[in-house]
Protein: histidine kinase
Organism: Bosea thiooxidans
Amino acid sequence: MPRSRSGPCVDWGISLRLSELRLSLRFRIIAVLAAVLAAGAIVLGAAAWHSSSLAAQQAYDRLLRGGAVQIAENVYVQGGVVTVDPPVSTIATLADYDLVFYKVVDPRGIVVAGYEDLASDADPVETRAGVVLEDGLYQGQPVRIATLARQIDLPGTNNWATIVVAQTTDARRALARDLTLKALGVIAVMSVLALLAAAYAVTLALKPLTRIEREIAARRPDDLRPIEAEPPLEIRNLVEAIDDFMRRLSERMAIMQRFIADAAHQIRTPLAALDAQVEILIGTPASRRKADTVKRIHERTAELGRLTGQLLDHAMVIHRKDAAATTPIDLNELAKAVLAKAVPLSLPREIDIAFVPAETSPTVDGDAVSLREALSNLIDNALTHGARSRLLVTVGADETQAWIEVADDGDGFSASPAELIQPFVKGTASRGSGLGLAIASEVAIMHEGKLTVARESGTTLVRLVLAR
């Protein structure tokens, strides 16, 4: 018969469930409580065994001490000889629980009754003051020994007779075990009840998490509102962090959706113009007009290339806004490197380009990639749409902020400064994507700064301000 192939799947499913169980908060809490209760039960069990043994020892010691006293009271002198009349009821009472051995020694050291080989290590001085109890071994069995001395009148002796009573310890251990087992039963029942109560309490405590889970699971992918379910105090900070994350995610998604919509709209225009120019080129014979059409196609292609590049730059800046790691950046070095790279080798007009670094090179913590893109866009914007004969890049700083300023002698902007930093808003009549200043503004905000635009004495000043 062929073997079933469901075995590995079943094993994998069991392993997955066990893995989920180990990661369960409920399982972890109950496991910790179970471990604590088990440790407590062990400690309480040891304490119960000690207390039971002590109680059994004390109970049987009272019987043994009483038996030794009663035997001593029945020791007397008759005809010049020490005699003992053992109390049968006392010995019978002791014998009901264990084996009993006794011995009576007269003041001369002669055993007058009992087992001659029954020995006691008790100090004779202490036995004259009262019953002395000790553990010993008799006939291969552990015994508890009570030793007592009684003063009698026997001429020619020290007048002290010694009474030794021994009892095996089986009944003591049995009583200690019985008491311990009963205590362990109570401890076990209480531990189980405590564990069940803890499991129930944990289930009740985790119900708000279940409500939060259901609320989130029931939402649409674009529903990033704050969680409405009231969280317990212990997880309120977690829920607030989730709400804050969803708020930032919602803002990022709104920015990206608006960016995609604007980008799609902006790209359609140069693509449609390029398509029209290509159709004209196809239907036009070789002539002067054909050369003009090729020139316009080249212009449209360059415009589309710039637009695509700036769209990608804008997307990159938005992406790096919260993800990029900051590093110390020397603004003098950054501005010098970007200016050298951003200025083309040949320009359509003569422009005097100058760079004025700060006296003390300012350093800011920021994202070097984003700052290079922002400054590159400002310089390109000034060269393409502003400067007629002069471009000046200046680096400055004070105690709280640093800045890089791009100044040109162009005609300025037709739009207001607030409109200029909005994507796809063109500040001049010339062609452009309207993204250069928007990218620079995004980067400034990313670095806790701002982008300012001003017009002074025929000069347009665009300043990228950064917090130090």
